[in-house]
Structure formats: C-alpha cells, structure tokens
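A favour, since you know our structure tokens better than I do. Just paste the record in under my message, thanks.
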Amino acid sequence: MMQYIQDGLAERGIAFSTEGNRVRCFPHVVNVGVQTGLKQLTAVKDNAIGAPRPKDEPLPRPGDPVKTARSLVAACRAFGQRREEFRKTIQEGNSAKTFGEQPLPKAELLRDVDTHWSSMFLMIDRFLELCAAIQQFLAKQQTMSDVMPEKHVLDVLKDIRDFLEIPHIVQEVLSAERTPTLCMVLPAYENLMTALENLRSRTPKLHHAISATLLKLRVYYTSARQSDTCIIAMSESRNCHCIGGATDCADLHKHQS
C-alpha cells in the first residue's frame, strides 16, 4: 500500500518515501493508551468484596474495582442455571418495582474480551446498569450473599466507566463512517485528548491514570503529525469532515464541555 502511494505521488511530482511513513492503527493506539492508564489505577483498600471465599467458589478477592466486576460477572454467568436465575431476578424485580419506577432492561451481563477494544467499557457499563439486580441476585445465593462491592468501589467503577466512555465514543464516531479516511485521525486524536483533559480536571481520583493515557496518546499524536502520509491526506481530502470537532457527537461534547 505504501509503495502504491509512493508511486502515485511520484507521477504527480510529489516527493514521498515509504520509510518512516507507515500509519499506525488508530483503534490499536487508543487501546494501548487506555491499557496504560488502567495499569496506573491502584487497588481499592479495605474489605471491598466481603470475607474470603471458599476454595470451590470462583470468586477470588481481586485487587481493583475492574477485577471485582469481572469476577462477579463471571460468577453470575458461570452456568446456565445462574443465568436463568439472573434473568428471573430482573423480571420479578421489575414486576414488583423493587428497582424503582424505571424498570431495568432485560439484558445479560457482559464479559470483556482483550481483542475487543471497548469490551471493558461495555462490561462495566452493563454491570452498573444492572447493579440493583446483581445485588438482589447475590443475596439469594448461599455462597455469594456477601460479595457485593461496597459503595466506594462502585463509585470508583463509575469514574472508570466515564474514563473508558470517551475513547469508546471517539471510536464509535469513526466506525460510523462508511469510508473512514486518514484525514480523520488527527482531529480524532485532538478531540479524544481534549475530552480526557477535561475529565481529568473533574475526576481527581483518576488523575494519574488519565495522565498516563494522555502521555501515551501524545507520543503517537506527535508521530502522526510528523508523518508525510497524514499531511498529504489532510491537504488532499477537501471534502473530509473529520468528525468536525466535538459538536458532531453530543456524547463527546458532554465530556469536552
């Protein structure tokens, strides 16, 4: 591909070399940045998920809120009978208005997958959405009645969800384009970093994690700005709307304002 670009530009009298101008995958770069930030999150202290579990119960005491959520999701989805009991818990709670006037969605808990960029965000978002049903479901289980995370753990999970939502939105906007082009990359980096900077100012507890993510993203952003490939793509694509600042996406605008 890069050789094809070099040959095409040479025919137009434009100097270009394949050396040092290969373009990095934007979703991969975002994922690297997010994972860098998540590694900076410290373990939640105190007894976050109750007493130590029996050896036969797949709920090891995790060291951070994400592991807490992941362990509980795995336990609730461990086999068919539990999944059916969880669905029944939602139905009964909605009928009895146990969860309030607004019924919970009849949805499954989601696992995160390393190769799916936004799967951790989707797992945490669904976990928090169905938190009331999870609490009621766990209360019915003899071996899991005391493992529901405490409020401060859930508060941290909400902050992490807000952190992960920003790169998720940016990638969703790019994925919505039928023919994403290279000219969108630099504006996407800029929108992403601006939104993260604003979230960092509002969420002191995640300052170190967001800072680590921003540091990683700026390295790739600087490299992209110096790439002849990106420069040519920006100058040649006159009709490229480049996700037009934050205003093209209301959700991203919420984080940037």
